[in-house]
Design a protein that fits this description.
alpha+beta, two-stranded parallel ribbon, two-stranded antiparallel sheet, 12 strands, about 40% helix, elongated
């Protein structure tokens, strides 16, 4: 049998190079694409199961935290409902001590509330400061300020009250009476209450008569009434500076008259316009109300009201850090 020599002849160079060229051109991109695909599949799988694991772990931690909060809350019968920004409560009603003796640091009395302040009446009843006896309200005698409430050293002698009535002329006494009558007339024109919002109109606010008084100073109103007696003017200026921090030249006529016309509280065992007072001033009311409902150094950061319920975010106040 004779073999054909052409069967074992080498392939042309051009044909021998092509498979090698194909491998060099297409194999690396294919490997790269395969690596990218495998990496993407690995990343997607890791992310998918990782996020699920993180979510499940976060849910477990949230449930544990909620249980811890519920456990802490369950120790109390109520949550704090009164927040105080400062490190002690009271504001300008704080009390203090000097040499171990209680004294007021600000507001030092409470006028007997009228029916315009039912919340204050209820509070005083809860504190045991007032009770109904034979159908009439009576206040605890220990806390009523009895006469003489104030004394004035005038013309080398002491006299009751801050308005001098001894050693003054009849013209001065007549201006006292006229001032009282003018205040009464203003009260009849539009009611003065304490708190004043009890008499406010929901649409117009202050009554027109009150708006007119609010547009002028107390000094201008007194001048308009012909009340220029030096003793009367001194007393009224003192009252305004004591309550409002400014004299009759700056306080409005509405505020000046309100000082006298808004105090109409009475009781079976007290004089009209009587007041309650304590050694530490209104700090007494702060002390008796300083219960577990009070949270000091706290700031309400956000309040959300939904329907009849509300929730808030309470933030602590660090005075040293300024936060």
């Amino acid at each position: 049998m004779k073999c054909d020599p052409n069967l074992y002849r080498a392939a042309p160079p051009s044909l021998a190079v092509k498979p090698r060229l194909i491998r060099h051109l297409f194999l690396p991109p294919l490997i790269i694409a395969l690596m990218i695909g495998l990496g993407f599949i690995g990343f997607w799988t890791s992310e998918h199961f990782g996020i699920r694991s993180l979510g499940e772990n976060g849910q477990r931690q949230l449930e544990l935290h909620a249980r811890a909060v519920e456990s802490e809350i369950s120790k109390y019968t109520y949550l704090p409902s009164l927040l105080e920004l400062e490190d002690s409560a009271g504001g300008n009603a704080r009390g203090g001590t000097v040499g171990g003796i209680a004294c007021p640091l600000g507001a030092h009395y409470l006028p007997l509330p009228t029916d315009d302040a039912p919340e204050v009446q209820d509070l005083l009843e809860e504190l045991g400061l007032r009770q109904r006896v034979a159908g009439r309200w009576q206040y605890d005698e220990r806390h009523l300020c009895h006469s003489p409430q104030e004394r004035l050293y005038f013309e080398r002698e002491w006299q009751e009250g801050l308005l001098p009535v001894q050693g003054v002329g009849e013209a001065t006494l007549e201006q006292y009476r006229r001032f009282s009558q003018a205040v009464g007339a203003a009260s009849r024109a539009a009611r003065f209450t304490m708190p004043q919002f009890a008499a406010l109109d929901a649409k117009t606010g202050l009554a027109p008569a009150h708006q007119a008084l609010d547009a002028m100073t107390f000094e201008a109103w007194l001048q308009q009434q012909g009340l220029d007696d030096a003793h009367l003017r001194w007393y009224l200026d003192y009252c305004c500076r004591d309550d409002y921090g400014a004299g009759t030249a700056r306080v409005s006529a509405w505020a000046g008259i309100h000082y006298f016309a808004g105090r109409r509280g009475t009781a079976a065992n007290s004089e009209q316009n009587a007041v309650l007072t304590w050694p530490q001033g209104n700090g007494f009311l702060v002390d008796v109300n300083e219960t577990g409902e009070l949270l000091l150094s706290a700031l309400l950061g956000r309040l959300e009201i939904v329907g009849k319920s509300s929730s808030g975010v309470i933030e602590g106040v660090d005075e040293q850090e300024g936060n």
